[in-house]
Design goal:
It is built from six helices and no strands. By secondary structure, it is mostly helical. It has a domain at about 10-90. Helix 1 (about 10-25) runs parallel beside helix 4 and helix 3 (about 45-50) crosses helix 4 (about 55-75).
Length: about 120
């Protein structure tokens, strides 16, 4: 069985302390900033730790705090970067359109053809 590098954090408490130190540092709240601050070599390490049940809640909360920082940037004069970041975090700017006449296609099939083929 292939073994990877040993985990940086063995306990949830140690990870939580490292994450809290990042947020207390005043650095901009970004996923890569968080990863670098706590000693990871990639963003993927954050997602890998999130899959482990004992770290899952802590990582999800940290990611939510980063997401919140981007959301707050939406109120700035130039929110383009925040919009881009949020879209990469799963947000979408879409509109939902509902049809007023449900079943319109079925009704159209029952009506005579008003436009005869030429």
């Amino acid at each position: 069985m292939k073994e990877g590098r040993p985990r940086i954090f063995e306990t949830a408490e140690d990870l939580e302390k490292a994450i809290q130190a990042f947020f207390d540092s005043g650095e901009k709240r970004t996923i890569t900033g968080l990863a670098l601050s706590i000693g990871f070599e990639s963003r993927q390490s954050i997602y890998d730790y999130e899959k482990d049940g004992k770290f899952s809640y802590i990582i999800k909360k940290a990611r939510l705090m980063v997401e919140n920082a981007y959301e707050e940037m939406l109120f700035d004069d130039k929110p383009t970067g925040a919009i881009f970041a949020l879209k990469n975090m799963g947000w979408a700017d879409s509109q939902k359109t509902e049809h007023a006449f449900k079943g319109l296609e079925e009704l159209a099939k029952k009506l005579p053809n008003f436009f005869p083929e030429e």
